[in-house]
Amino acid sequence: MKTFNAIAALAAATSVYAAPSPTEQLEARASSLTAITVKGNAFFQGNNRFYIRGVDYQPGGSSKLVDPLADSTACTRDIAEFKKLGLNTVRVYTVDNTVNHDACMSALAAAGMYLVLDVNTPLYSLNRATPAPSYNSVYLQNIFATIDAFANYTNTLAFFSGNEVINDDSTTSAAPYVKAVTRDMRQYIGSRGYRQIPCGYSAADVDSNRLEMAEYMNCGTADERSDFFAFNDYSWCDPSSFQISGWEQKVKNFTGYGLPIFLSEYGCNTNTRKFEEVAALYNTEMTSVYSGGLVYEYSEEGSKYGLVTINSDGTITEGADYAALKTALAGTAPPTGDGGYNSTGGASGCPAKSANWDVSGDSLPAIPSAAADMMKTGAGKGFGLTGTGSQNAGGTSTGTATPGSGSVTATSTAKKSSAPGRQPPFDKTPILVAGLAVAFSLFGACLL
Known about the structure:
Elements: H1 2-17, E1 36-39, E2 42-45, E3 48-50, E4 52-56, H2 72-85, E5 89-92, H3 102-110, E6 114-118, H4 131-134, H5 137-150, E7 156-163, H6 175-191, E8 199-203, H7 210-216, E9 228-233, H8 247-254, E10 261-266, H9 277-281, H10 284-287, E11 290-295, E12 308-310, E13 316-318, H11 320-330, H12 369-377, H13 429-447
Parallel strand pairs: 4-5, 4-11, 5-6, 6-7, 7-8, 8-9, 9-10, 10-11
Antiparallel strand pairs: 1-2, 2-3, 12-13
């Protein structure tokens, strides 16, 4: 019983003093890299302009859905290939928000690489055809859980709220829901006390509404506007040029735009890929507007876009496209200085309704009430790559949002739930207090 009393005292002391205080914050992960911020229409790493030089990374593709950041062996193998290319960023389209990602995220950070992450999964996403039912609290809970899983890595560069949800003129009516999700993500990040991680949208390169979508994501009240705009662009097909590809006109169209723009996918494979567009993308003829881009894609998944082949034994075979991209990047350094960026930024006007744009003004759906509660309570555990799906799960929006309702009015001071296996900062206080408790307990026992 004497021993039991001593152990009980130790357990009691530990249970009391190891509990997090109300204001304790989670440890920043992957702290070897400076977090990327937005200034005007550009990204910055500290005081230096940051250009995305990356690839899209989803081994297995959509047919064999896996989380590439949950397999430390595979991601370490692939990071070595990224380093040889001279990359600083990877985009991942789908992750399992229920597993730990420390090993791969730390390995990326050690290699000087950042992550741009899509928060959706095939089961938990917006339905472009009928967006209203799919914008619900179950869906938002899962994407908030993904934010929880990655927000404390300093090399999480940005989150995508969606990818090509609007892919023609007939689906532009889904734009308010894409914008509402982006608003909700930004509000959740602020309400949970995370650093300001940029949130934006990856658009399809639809000629008839590309500019309207960009303007729409940057119009309205401050809480509604995105932190950046990206689009997938395959219009430069070698051999081509700044003028022939249409990139010159796109730069003109976006000149004066107040948010960072980058290519979330590029690399036309109609002809032999030489990646001649790399020299233009990181040239001052484009850097006043563009902040780099991501080549589609790292591994061959049946569409003949892969830079490498992942063999059945897990080894890598570098293809001709890998060599071409490596040569193009090695021969193209980012410009010195600030690249001529727009330091003031600024909002856009909302595009007018037209035959190509089926949206009026900037009225957005109000966040579903259960999702609004998560701003204070947190999202809890996500569904990972399984679950019953969210598109018809109920708990939808019941009205139109009041302008400014997505602002962060209060920041949670409660300790945020961490991803599985993630530990808070080490604190010696519990050990010291527990040691005193044991000593006093043993002293008291000796007096009996």
